[in-house]
Amino acid sequence: MDRPDWHGPLTEAYEQATRFLTGLPEREVGSRATLEELRAALGGPLPDAGSDAREVVARLAEAADPGIVASPSGRFFGFVIGGATPAALAADWLTATWDQNAGLYAAGPAAAVVEDVAGGWLRDLFGLPAQASAGFVTGAQMSHVTALAAARHEVLRRAGWDVETDGLHGAPRIAVLAGADRHSTIDRALRFLGIGTAALVPVDVDDQGRMTTAGLRAALAGLDGPAIVCAQLGNVNTGAFDPIGEICDVAHAAGAWVHVDGAFGLWAATSARLRHLVTGVDRADSWTTDAHKWLNVPYDSGLVFCAHPAAHRAAMGVRAAYLVHAGGDERDALDYNPEFSRRARGFAVYAALRALGRTGVESLIDRGCDLAARFARRMSGRVLNDVVLNQVLVGFGPATPDLVRRVQAEGTCWVSGTLWRGAPAMRFSVSNFTTDEADIDRAADTILRLAAGT
Ligand SMILES: *Cc1c(COP(=O)(O)O)cnc(C)c1O
To answer: For the modification N6-(pyridoxal phosphate)lysine, which residues carry it (predicted)?
Structure first.
């Protein structure tokens, strides 16, 4: 076979990428195409004959462009979505280029070492125990599945049950205590794990969505048997933090496992100013966070940590005669991950951390909070939450959903909507590393102008 032409398609991708990235500051933030337009531009039957690779890349970029949401833009404030820093993005390109199967050390030694190193840096940044095991997963969703599988193993092992061998048929029932304002990915993880959402015991929350310690005490008092407590650092609407230190004390006194959903809130641990919000987080049993949100690593990139490496491995580990398993000190990622073959996700996380350094991570987090506070000042009188992190909830009464749609259509910025305590609200999340004061002011001006109907 002729040697493939790498240069043409990769040059095209490089040119398309740099045009997109440098255009972000002025690009309309939302998608500009309808479903019908995108289907017309991208659809049709698969041609019989192939095409030149560079041509394919050029046509793909051209046809997809109107349907690309500029979520890496500094004025994208929807959901909790970060962009991609230059180092992380470039390392991600190399990840695809090297195309390592990062399940086994033997198939990608450098990928395994990079995950080990970056996992250690993150443990250190978050103040987690040095012996905690780490896994690089697709996102917080699969991090929950991994951590709660380890929790399921451990709480049932203590009850004399081997869940990996015997499954859940006939097993002692596990109770899962979680705040009423938990993220929906907790419920979904319980479905995947066969624990079921009926195992959930909702715990009282306060006006910011924080689990109350009294509520947890009361919920635990009615239980005996295996229990898992799911705490949250960073409520997806308000940004509020559960009192994690007290939760660990109360839960551990009752023999329960504590899992922490810190998809974006765990990053508060990297900031001297915010660290008090997560005091005691090191006493939990497992932790979930994302790199693709606040660290601004490209999708998909989540992280799981577990204070009980034996439970982590018991839940995830796999052996087969044809595989080459690590014999010594090497790390096989498939022993810590729900995937088998997998992308070498550690490279982009490693590059992101290396480029920012400890102080760069801290200022990234602090800046997001400062900018959220700046936006909240502009929305004065309409802010519905205590702004403790990077999340601001704004209420414009019953007209809020319509205003959210108009803001999205106008294109200067992009915000999403939610319901908070039964009332419609606009969610504003500052998660992008390029967002600056001017972006906040332009977004605030636009929102206030559209709200005033002018
Ligand atoms: C975003 C988020 C999740 C889900 O994360 P994914 O990375 O999308 O799987 C879970 N919990 C919280 C608090 C979140 O903000």
So the answer is: 293
